[in-house]
Specification:
Layout lengths: L5 H4 L11 E5 L6 H14 L4 E5 L5 H6 L8 E4 L2 E5 L2 H19 L5 H13 L3 H20 L2 E5 L3 H8 L1 H26 L4 H8 L2 H21 L4 E8 L2 H16 L4 E9 L9 H18 L4 E6 L7 H12 L5
Parallel strand pairs: 1-5, 1-6, 2-4, 2-5, 6-7, 7-8
Antiparallel strand pairs: 3-4
Helix pairs in contact: 2-13, 4-5, 4-6, 6-7, 6-10, 7-11, 8-9, 8-10
Bound molecules: adenosine-5'-triphosphate (ATP) and magnesium ion.
The site of magnesium ion has 5 residues, from helix 2.
């Protein structure tokens, strides 16, 4: 197993198409989990050591692969591993980590207040996204060394977009905190300039260290996400009006943040020979497919996956989809 980071090896290596980080997003129920699993399967069959990461509390990745995944990385097939991140659990862990750090810097008088605030933070919208983002960055940082590729099956569009725009928003906020803390410690050091212990505490401030580490982490995540050789984002949509409009907005937004959108996967395309019952739908689909071509033609790939006779279940069917979805790297 290679222990060098993907940056040391060079992004995109060892083979063409073995991009380090691939994200699948899109509206609910469009086929993100199916596509992420199939793409991970495609990469592993090409010899890329691939980790498939899901954040779905409904365990749909386990269901689709017929392998029980969990919070520990589990082998799925040759060159393929899976991990199921539990958003609620991650949020709990994330908030208590922040709480501990906060409690170590504040005066005992406001400890209860901090605890109360943290409890509110845990239930507030955004906590799970922040926690999952933290987990993603950790995976990109650490697991990028052990795997050639990580495939992320993300939550429905709105959540994911907020998630991916976090580095930009939080980066500035952390920078601000660092400056404030440095100033406070400077004053603390000055006040205690005749006290060796106080001086040492001011110089080796663990809080600034922790904040700097976090800021660096966000910076790295931005680097990963905005480098087309490292990351690509794919939207899964159906050839229908609402998913097209939502995807168009999402693509714009990711591009605004400098995140590379590799293309779109049009899933559940009704085959031409679907029969009389589908006649009207087929006619409408034709128009929508043209619309998709016009709107997303400037992206690198538009891949179509046909509507299958049954839902997608088990490795055999995933492998079949893997053959089609491999085209996104063609
Ligand atoms: N091309 C296809 N043909 C037939 N069934 C499909 C196809 N693609 C996906 N499905 C089925 O549609 C259902 C939803 O797919 P999937 O779970 O991949 O969507 P999702 O976008 O991950 O959903 P969620 O937003 O709930 O996470 C599943 O039962 C899956 O097997
Ligand atoms: Mg899913």
């Amino acid at each position: 197993m290679s222990e060098s980071s993907f940056e040391e090896r060079g992004a995109g290596l060892p083979g063409p198409g073995c991009r380090p980080f691939t994200f699948f997003g899109g509206k609910g129920g469009t086929g993100k989990t199916t596509c992420a699993a199939a793409y991970a399967c495609h990469l592993s069959s090409r010899g890329c050591r691939t980790l498939l990461v899901s954040t779905d509390p409904a365990h749909s990745t386990s269901d689709v692969l017929d392998v029980q995944l969990g919070a520990d990385i589990t082998p799925v097939a040759e060159n393929l591993w899976g991990l199921e991140v539990d958003p609620a659990l991650e949020a709990r862990r994330y908030i208590s980590e922040i709480q501990e750090r906060m409690l170590s810097i504040v005066s005992p008088a406001i400890v209860d207040e901090i605890k109360k605030q943290m409890e509110i933070a845990y239930t507030s919208p955004g906590a799970e996204e922040a926690a999952i983002f933290d987990k993603f960055v950790e995976l990109m940082d650490e697991r990028g060394r052990a795997y050639d590729a990580i495939v992320f099956d993300t939550a429905p569009t709105g959540h994911t977009l907020r998630l991916l725009s976090l580095p930009e928003i939080l980066g500035g906020w952390i920078e601000n905190l660092i400056a404030k803390r440095r100033k406070a410690m400077e004053m603390f050091g000055m006040a205690g300039r005749f006290d060796k212990e106080m001086r040492r505490r001011a110089e080796e401030d663990p809080v600034v260290d922790a904040l700097v580490r976090r800021r660096d982490r966000f910076e790295r995540s931005r680097r990963y996400l905005t480098d087309p050789g490292s990351s690509a984002f794919y939207f899964v949509l159906n050839a229908e009006k609402m998913p097209i409009l939502e995807t168009a907005r999402a693509v714009e937004m990711l591009m605004k943040f400098g995140i590379g959108v590799g293309g779109v996967v049009v899933n559940r395309v009704i085959p031409e020979d679907a029969g009389e019952f589908f006649r009207e739908r087929l006619a409408a689909q034709k128009g929508y497919l043209e619309d998709i071509g016009e709107r997303f033609g400037r992206l690198r790939r538009i891949v179509r996956l046909p509507l299958l006779r049954t839902d997608v279940q088990g490795m055999d069917q995933i492998k079949k989809i893997a053959e089609w979805i491999g085209e996104i790297d063609a």
